[in-house]
Amino acid sequence: MSLAIPERVLLGPGPSDVPARVLEALGRPTIGHLDPVFLQLMDAIRGKLQQVFQTRNEMTLAISGTGSAGMETMIANLVEPGDRFLVGVNGVFGGRMADTAERCGAVVEKIEIPWGRVFTKEQIIEAVDAFKPDHVALVHAETSTGAHQPLEGIGAAVRERGALLLVDCVTSLGGAPVLIDEWAIDAAYSGTQKCLSCPPGLSPVTFSPRAMEKLDGRKSKVQSWYLDLTMLRNYWGDSRAYHHTAPINMLYALDESLDIVLEEGLDPRFARHRSMHKLLRDGLAELGINYVSQEGHGLPMLNAVSIPDSTDDAEVRKALLADYGIEIGAGLGAFKGKAWRIGLMGHSATRRNVELVLSALKHILSA
Ligand SMILES: *Cc1c(COP(=O)(O)O)cnc(C)c1O
User: Fold this and answer.
1) Is the pLDDT at 367 greater than 90, yes or no?
2) CATH architecture of 9-14+266-366
């Protein structure tokens, strides 16, 4: 007998609640990955991803695998052994990019600032001038700290200095503006289970023409066979050459979730995330709970807050799950045992959920 899966309210750092329409899409008939209807669907997904990423980049597609597969795709394809890779580390996810670049043979330089804070444009430019990198990598939405890295103007400065700007947009895409072309971002990756509210399993990525030139100019083969864009682009492009079997039903789900995003409209969706964030922030303030991210730079979709003194971290999260069916996230890395991460991502960002988690927390904390 299979295990009964409970219904939860997903208010953690992802996955977020998945709308019924998206779950239904998963159940459509599986067809072949070279079926003309499926190829049409891939083209449609590319067009919708371009809208959500706000880009004209031809090389926009969904990688088979979660957000981390998108990260590896970006780095393995663009970084050649010996390349100089500058990465901003102010949480868990910048550290992962540094690790991945090192595995690809890059000379890695980290700019580190305390967790929860964001980089100024001046800090980045200074580091670029000192290190002279081929790549500059930043995390737009640091899910481990709730910090929202401003990106305006950084891409142009990085480009002027001859480097590529690479960005982790896993948590921001679909919940806050991600302006790939306007911000001159050369490559970015995301994931389906955060603000797109699709199950985990695909990673939307986009590469600028400059990034593709870098790929085409490589002297060595891409270190990963599975994630090699020089082959993947033939399947997503006109020749439709088989590389690996696309996760067909997951792509149905992604297509449906992108429809939901675009039907709501990007700006109204971002406004909804901001207003639900404010509602939660005000309610948490009444409970005496404070944010760990830098003032004025908090993410709308991920609220990282200090665990109140003399509160048992695990007990509270256990009670939320057992008594209310609510999942929130524990602290990660340096914030383990110190912070909670309350996500209001995509379909989960509703007034009902905000009121629910606030009243549940109030009840548990006072008991
Ligand atoms: C969730 C997340 C990832 C990793 O994505 P997975 O889907 O778990 O592989 C990477 N970066 C950030 C900022 C994330 O929030």
Assistant:
1) no
2) Alpha-Beta Complex (3.90)
